[in-house]
Hints:
- This protein is mainly α and 166 residues long.
- It has one domain.
- The protein has eight helices and no strands.
- The protein has helices spanning 3-13, 20-36, 46-52, 60-86, 93-115, 121-131, 133-138, 144-165.
- Helix 1 crosses helix 2, helix 2 (20-36) crosses helix 5 and helix 5 packs across helix 6.
- The longest helix is centred in the middle third of the chain and has 27 residues, at 60-86.
- It is globular.
Amino acid sequence: MFITVHAAAATILTKSIPNPFLAFLIGVLSHFVLDVIPHGDSRMGQRFWGHKLKFLQEKGELKLMALYGSLDGVVLAFLLMFLFRNFEFTRADNVIWGIVGSILPDITVAIYKLKNFKVIKWFFNFHNKNHNLLVNKINFDFPLQYGVLMQAIVLAALTWTIYLIA
Ligand SMILES: [Zn+2]
């Protein structure tokens, strides 16, 4: 799932959690809960996109993840600028730590994918297992493009919610 969606959800969830450490934990926990919902990236649409885009044919998964990840990073940067400028509560320690907690799992996963640090292998495996828990159980995931669309809609809804609760 896009870290931008995780961050927006954590912003809402940690608004009324005054303790930054607790907010951080809620951020981390919310990441794992949201990841279980099928959202199109369990297989990264590799077969489909690998067919369409020539440059993905070699090391396709890593390239697609890098593309997806950088795009996500840019959108997250814009979301954070937007939130920090417009909503005072998002500049408080608890919300900031909540956001950090909500995106940290995916950053850890990305670091493992790139560097294979053995100490975080268990975390990588745990994250993967959790991420694909429901997808594997019901043997269904959305195609990546629908997953992205769905997440864009959810992100809009979350942003609207932030307006309403601010
Ligand atoms: Zn994740």
